[in-house]
Specification:
single chain, 161 residues, 80% helix
Length: 161
């Protein structure tokens, strides 16, 4: 849940400031593809939310008396999970860019896409057999890695035009 909240909070301003001041137009005219711009924003989103969550998860799990054997599994499930949340969130932020009530619309778009990530992430830690849940997280990440930036790029081009 912390990963979901950390990923959702900055999404409404991910492209908003660039869209309002015109720098998104310049980014798209710079020769970089719209998918590349979206992927760069996804990496910056993950570095500011998911990476720091990975860093703090270990000490926080020890502080909350999580069994030491589950700590590597927690970090292993958080890595693809936070990346997936950033990819899906960036895609939703690009889709809702320019909408009047994007702050209300974005959670309605992202939550149905992000709930499976939470389910499989929790299942990897709570289940006695974590491998299927981890493989499902990895499969979802492999699927979203090329598709989410392409969809976000198409939405950015549509919002700018």
């Amino acid at each position: 849940m912390c990963a979901l909240l950390a990923a959702l909070l900055p999404l409404d301003r991910l492209f908003g400031a660039d869209y309002e001041d015109g720098s998104l137009d310049l980014l798209l005219l710079s020769g970089m593809t719209a998918g590349g711009v979206a992927f760069a924003k996804t990496i910056s989103h993950w570095l500011t939310t998911g990476f720091f969550l990975l860093l703090i998860a270990g000490p926080l799990a020890i502080m909350l008396r999580m069994p030491a054997g589950l700590l590597p599994l927690l970090l292993l499930s958080l890595l693809p999970g936070t990346m997936l949340l950033s990819l899906l969130g960036t895609m939703a932020a690009a889709i809702t860019l320019g909408a009047r009530r994007s702050a209300v619309l974005m959670p309605l778009i992202t939550l149905p896409l992000m709930i499976p990530t939470l389910i499989f992430g929790c299942a990897a830690i709570a289940s006695p057999h974590p491998k299927p849940a981890l493989l499902m997280l990895a499969a979802m990440l492999v699927l979203a890695l090329p598709l989410a930036p392409l969809a976000a790029g198409a939405a950015l081009r549509a919002a700018v035009e």
